[in-house]
């Protein structure tokens, strides 16, 4: 098994009840316990909206902790994973039709039971987030939080110069209008082109339907980013745990 096949386990303890704040911060990877005490002393830590003080105790499972204004997830029972979903895999942990599913790739690499945040259809590939943090997952999927999803699509060309303006102005589909937040042509390959577009819509097959409606059906679709989290060089079928900074960026994206 390759080293990046497995989402790394954490040796941080799972707390029950309350613990001193500096101990919780250190266990969450903020720094040494002494460095965390210094952060608290310098009034750079808040707990539930109140500036923390040395000697404070918190329950990591319920406390809302911010360090320098960024949300820290201190509950080690919560897991945040990025996956590069391959084409041909259905976005479910248990497929009744026996098709390739997420569980085939996650297996025992994540000890906790996790759920996918939104979906990618079987013919699409790329970034998928999985977590057992239901509150954050709901916010990431709900359109009111307007978390952008970015896609790289291979489509039929050529691409007219005004296509970006048309997509950003809005296109009427059978279930209502949709518009993209950004659009650019990445490359042209003979009769096909690669385009990148971002939108905060989450309707089923929305990117494929949108591009087909304007005359450029999709032959390949890859999701490259969800909010601040990028697919990067994560290889097809692999998973990795998000860093503390990435989790904080997700909280920031939903205004938490």
Automatic annotation (TrEMBL):
EC number in record: 5.4.99.-
Keyword entries, A-Z: Isomerase, RNA-binding
Key word Isomerase present: yes
Segments forming a coiled coil: none
Family matches, as SUPFAM superfamilies: Alpha-L RNA-binding motif, Pseudouridine synthase
Database matches in InterPro entries: PsdUridine_s_RsuA/RluB/E/F_cat (IPR042092), PsdUridine_synth_cat_dom_sf (IPR020103), PsdUridine_synth_RsuA/RluA (IPR006145), PsdUridine_synth_RsuA/RluB/E/F (IPR000748), PsdUridine_synth_RsuA/RluB_CS (IPR018496), RsuA_PseudoU_synthase (IPR050343), S4_RNA-bd (IPR002942), S4_RNA-bd_sf (IPR036986)
Domain RNA-binding S4 intervals: 19-77
Pfam families, alphabetized: PseudoU_synth_2, S4
One Gene Ontology term of the molecular function aspect: rRNA pseudouridine synthase activity
Highest taxon above the source species: Bacteria
Catalysis: reaction(s): a uridine in RNA = a pseudouridine in RNA
GO BP annotations listed: enzyme-directed rRNA pseudouridine synthesis
Keyword Oxidoreductase: no
Family: Belongs to the pseudouridine synthase RsuA family.
Protein name: Pseudouridine synthase
Protein source organism: Micromonospora palomenae
Lineage: Bacteria, Bacillati, Actinomycetota, Actinomycetes, Micromonosporales
